[in-house]
Design a protein that fits this description.
The protein has 99 residues and is mainly α. It contains four helices and two strands, in the order H-E-H-H-E-H. Helix 2 packs across helix 3.
Length: 99
């Protein structure tokens, strides 16, 4: 048997998952506090995208607001394959369901 994987990362991965017509996918959502996420994204944008700090902050906040306005809780079509991962998540439990 041949397994193929496509990993889509980022806050708009949820939008991509809603375009899939089949149920052969797993959606893993990593719950991160806004400030932790913003700090990481700003560092990346300064280093990798050449943005200044203010532009990186503005872009992050705009994207964050779009994401949370557009994607209300439980907006995933295939809820049986959705897992939310937080600091206290039992990863072994998720892996048993996936594999």
């Amino acid at each position: 048997m041949h397994n193929c994987f496509l990993i889509v990362e980022g806050i708009f991965a949820r939008e991509f998952s809603n375009t899939l017509n089949n149920k052969d996918y797993i959606f893993l959502e990593l719950k991160t506090k806004k400030n932790e996420c913003m700090k990481r994204v700003i560092q990346r944008d300064i280093k990798e995208r050449g943005k200044d700090k203010k532009q990186a902050e503005n872009d992050f906040l705009k994207s964050w607001n779009i994401y949370y306005e557009k994607f209300k809780p439980n907006s995933i079509k295939n809820k049986t394959n959705k897992f939310i991962i937080e600091k206290n998540t039992d990863i072994d439990h998720i892996l048993k369901k996936i594999i």
